[in-house]
């Protein structure tokens, strides 16, 4: 499988998306309290809205892939029937609530599955660092 670049992270394609076992059942149970005659819908009962999830499979010898954002690791757990643990990360930007999970595939250890939950509400730090010299040149040339 070819390595997916930053462009595929920004514009996810259906071919790159995968579903992870165990993640599909989270938050999809009915929102009722067991009553069948309850007329409330799950959205009116205070159920938290689901953030969009995108998963990518990348062939890489490294578990930590640089996607341009800065992440803080907040957990790791063993996964049933897999020799590889799943790591949990949060975006370090103060207003951003995006999370990601990183795990190696148990059948093919060369593939890393990265699942993003949510959408960043700030520009990519690496992209801004790359454009900083160009912006300084523009300011110098325009006299701002």
From TrEMBL:
Protein known as: WRKY domain-containing protein
Keyword vocabulary terms for this entry: DNA-binding, Nucleus, Signal, Transcription, Transcription regulation
Cell compartments where the protein resides: Nucleus
Residue span, WRKY domain: 60-125
Species the sequence originates in: Zingiber officinale (Ginger)
Sections of the chain in a coiled coil: none
Superkingdom, natural source: Eukaryota
Signal peptide per UniProt: 1-17
